[in-house]
Amino acid sequence: MCLITEHAHLEKEIAELKQQYEPVLPTGYPTFDVKWTDLKLELESLGVECMLKPAHIPDALVRHTNEESWAKIMPFLVYPADLYVEQVADCDDYARWATADSSRLFKLNGCLECWGDSKWGYHAFSLVRVAPGEYRISEPNAVAPWAGTLMRFGDNGYMPKYWRL
Question: What are the boundaries of each domain within the chain?
Fold first, then answer.
């Protein structure tokens, strides 16, 4: 078999394997935009402080979805526990990966990095806007049995204090 034919054959096999093993991501969910300043004010009213300086506005609009759709998306923003390396790839990295992948995979930049209290003490996790003035928490580290689920403030000891986009 010539190299070109062999290459084409392998590319076809790879494409078939990708279809078989790549997860089917949720699509067709509604999206909503909120002004950065409104998001910041909402979170401040809930006692969650922005970690960025006032003049630092990464995006003028923050795109999010509703609670039902976030519930379908969050399991795809959970990462294996064995990636954890203390002080190197720890909870804040897991939260950052979820924020980045939410934008990359779902075109939603409304998955925020959040820091606060948890059962494990001070901890980083994900925070999403599900409706005006309403937010949910999600744990991006698969070590937690509740990873990838949506929680209210206080569930499993999670209490947000600080956030950033």
Answer: 28-164
- Could you tell me which residues are beta bridge partners of residue 63? 33
Considering just the CA atoms, what is the radius of gyration of the chain in Å? 18
Mean pLDDT for the stretch of residues 49-53: 90
Q: Are strands 61-64 and 32-35 parallel, antiparallel or unpaired?
A: antiparallel
Residue-level pLDDT at 23: 75
Q: What is the pLDDT of residue 137?
A: 98
CATH for 28-164 (3.20.20.80, 2.102.10.10, 3.30.460.70, 3.40.50.300) = 3.30.460.70
Query: Which tokens in the block code for residue 50?
Result: 């922005």
Counting Cα atoms < 13 Å in the Cβ hemisphere of 3 gives 0
Specify whether the CB–CB gap between 137 and 153 falls below 8 A. yes
With contact defined as beta carbons under 8 Å apart, do 111 and 102 qualify? Answer: yes
